[in-house]
Fold each of these.
Amino acid sequence: MASSTVTSAQPERPPRPNLAFRRLRGKRSPAEFAAAVRRAARQIGERVSCDARYVGRVEAGEIRCPNYAYERVFLHMFPGRTLTDLGFAPRSSVRGRQARTTGESRGAGEPYETHDTQDVRDTQYVRDAQDLYEKHDNNEESDVLRRAFMTSGATVAAASLTPLGLALDAAAAGRPTRRAGTGEAGALEEAVRRIRLLDDRHGADGLYRRAAAPLRTAYALLDAGASRQATADRLYTGAGELALSVGWLAHDSGRFDDARSHYAEALATARMNGDAGLEAHAFCNMAFLARDAGRPREAVRAAQAAQRAARPLGSDRLMSLLSLREAGGWAGLADRVGCEQALVRAQTFYGRGPSDTDPEWMSFYGEAELEGLEAQCWSTLGDWPRAARHARRAADLQDPHFTRNLALYSAELADDLARGGRPDEAAGAGMCVLDLLSEVQSSRIHTMLAGTARVLLPHRRSPAVSTFLDRHRTLPRPA
């Protein structure tokens, strides 16, 4: 990695909007353009985590020059143009360190430089981790973020990459000695965003154990205080969102007690700061956890509490997701009428379309997730054919960018088909999941697949089922 020497602070310059980039986006929304960027990246073998907020930061001039991965993607999207044509500043003018004429050192330069890794999956984690932290090419911003993370411990991952890309030195998560500013708040928000990205691609098992240090650092930042109320609000929200992200990693890897603790911590943070959005998110996750932990009535009540908190926020998509959380609880109570009513509300809210008030953390929620959650409801109610139809549609609709969800929907499909008396089709869907498990580490998916294998055992004389069972038998179990 590049030297961690911090340059002296420089006077802040107001960002200049990137009008050229805005013109190139045209009539597409930021989210639609971000999806186009991700598709273009896959076309040339790159992996970027572009979302609507990143597009907004570029257009606002906060990102004066993209990192090398984004540069290749943008030049692929707009052939014949240079970075200057796209409205960016020359790279040499935004580097916070002396320009290097003989090449960049590892980590600060080419984000996908070759590393010695154990296998293909390890290489992917390294690449993702490098993309994770090669985000702040603005001179002043990058220096502030490096100070905030390298001294506070939230992104020591940039200095000590492992195959999982989040090797955090817990000893580095010491108490901050000065009040936090906008740089620390931005760094905390970026940490939340990148952890979610890696979870979307690879699942929670390899990330959870490494996520404690950033969370401790986040609450240490809160304890240190902030120079402005607006910054303090961002820190509270960021710390709460990070607690939810770490809680989800625990949840998805089967550590339900840990997840419950982290979700409760996020809820307390939300209520201390009067943050209705964070409160709705916390109750949303608590409803999901309660359903998975076999407490369906608690799931219903948590989902209803989430809807009360979310109603003033004006996000129909959020209300749609929360209605699905409630439907899952009713299904667990074997209340088909209550489940169907909640599903109708979810569909109605979803049909009203996206809006600017939709929370950033809901980037995973689209038609595929809606279909997947409805499939889970019908599966819980024992309507296997109906569950399989929705699960198949979820898998067909899922953006390959969300690898973990694609594996999850395919595993749901395999189980529904197996329990619905269609063993050969179930085996085929199960083989698709096995293919994806080279990239995904999720105890949830492993558990689902093991259940499917048990259901298929009586059909092992079928060649398709036998092939699936043999391959599943050799699958490495999660740690």
Note: Confidence is low (pLDDT under 50) at residues 1-12, 95-177.
Amino acid sequence: MRIGILGTGNMADALGTQWARAGHEVLIGGRSTERAAALAGRIAGGIGGRTACRAGTLREAGAFGDATLLAVPHDTVPTVLKEAGADEDSGGVLHGRVLIDCTNAIGPGFVLTTQGGPGAAARIADATGAHVVKAFNHCADSVWRLTPPAFSDGPLTAPLAVPLCGDDERALETVRTLVRDMGCVPLAAGGLDRAVYLETATAFLVGLWMNGEDPRRMLPPFAAATA
């Protein structure tokens, strides 16, 4: 698969490295061509150059291949999408494309900055006309760097589940493939209208984690919860 990445930060690094390691061709697009080139070189070097990873502009990354990952701070999303050509005539370069949204609109106090209006993923879909899938936003980059992201679950080691919210089946299947290629398990979490709940849950979880609490302690085993 060919994947364009909008962003040069930690999430772009972590996910881009995983997908390049799995054999996908990756194009990094950034507002800084120097940072994009540096990240592309770091990813290629980290996997021994087994697959192609190169740098380009935001517009090139937005139009590249089978899917595009949006991995920038949420407050920069409008500017990045504009530079990627999302608001141009004839629908823009992201119109109708698979767009993975891993952004979090979390402000001080671990609350959403989108409160009182549509969620982040819905706003991105409206701005681009893309087939948006909300995914990978519920964990930090350090988790996505694990090979694979799997954790002890009693006597077993269980791969991490990745919630996916989206409306387009082709887009969802594309992202399911990328989830599995990282050693994770896709978790169907509903349509894009459910993404705001995933965004809210992530803000809640981050608040607990940052206060030294383990959210798993509040959840019973599946069998007990569904008895």
Note: The chain has nine helices and twelve strands.
